[in-house]
Amino acid sequence: MKDDDARKPEPASGVTRRDFMKISGIGVAVPLLVGPTVAKAAGEDVAVHGPGKVPIELTVNGKKLHAQLEPRVTLLDALRDNFNLTGAKRVCDRGVCGACTVLMDGKTVYACAVLAIDAQGKKITTIEGLAEGDALTPVMQAFVDHDAQQCGFCTPGFIVATTRFLEQHPNPTEDDIRRGLSGNFCRCGTYNGIRAVALATTREGRSS
Ligand code: FES
Ligand code: FES
After folding, report:
1. Which atom of ligand 1 lies closest to the CA of 92?
2. Whose CA is nearest to atom 4 of ligand 2?
3. I want to staple 184 with a disulfide (CB 3.0 to 4.6 A). Which of 15, 32, 86, 98 is the partner?
4. 112-146 residue pLDDT tens
5. Is the predicted pLDDT of residue 173 greater than 60, yes or no?
6. CA 147 to chain centre
């Protein structure tokens, strides 16, 4: 189809159809870009990343990790596919099940719902970063002691979420635990065991 942008006057906003296509990433004719470029949007300069690979730096478990990634790559895919950190699991891949839960600046997030490019400058902690060396954390040990997993796919996400939950709620009731861990699903139905983990870990004063 003939592109007639060149024959049209510049719109008052200063944003041409070509600019919009670059910004939204839907322009099939946009060349692959390396590093941010600048486009005009509503009269303002806007940094445009991609759609090609751009340099990304993530801070994961206290280490700086680098990769060339397309801006559309999620934090979960970056962790698993580029940095070989496969503890966070890809199950629903749409921010529903919690299997990919990691900590970002100390708060739980679904890694499948965060773009790697947006996670730059934040402290990411995965389940691999919770323990020191081969030693299990108290929460991890309690999962073993209370037989709180079956297939294990939800377990890393639950351990990260439970660890954070117990930091915030050192003396939770069962209802608190139900509500606090409601962002994580277990298809095998190990909820009783997981609640026992949270209660036992708290009772024994081992929530860190
Ligand atoms: S895989 Fe991310 S929430 Fe399910
Ligand atoms: S142990 Fe199988 S999904 Fe939870």
Report:
1. 4
2. 186
3. 98
4. 999 999 999 999 999 999 998 889 999 999 999 99
5. yes
6. 27
User: Cα–chain-centroid distance for residue 187?
Assistant: 21
pLDDT at 181: 97
pLDDT band at 205 (very low <50, low <70, confident <90, very high): low
Ligand 1 pocket, 140 CB below 6 A?
no
CB 113 within 8 A of CB 92: no
Q: Determine the residue of 149, 191, 192 to mutate for testing ligand 2's pocket, defined as the one with the most ligand atoms within 8 A of the Cβ atom.
A: 149
Closest CA to 89 of 143, 162, 157: 157
pTM confidence score: 0.79
Give the residue ranges of DSSP H helices in 58-173.
75-77, 138-145, 155-168
Which ligand lies nearest to the CA atom of residue 111 in the structure? 1
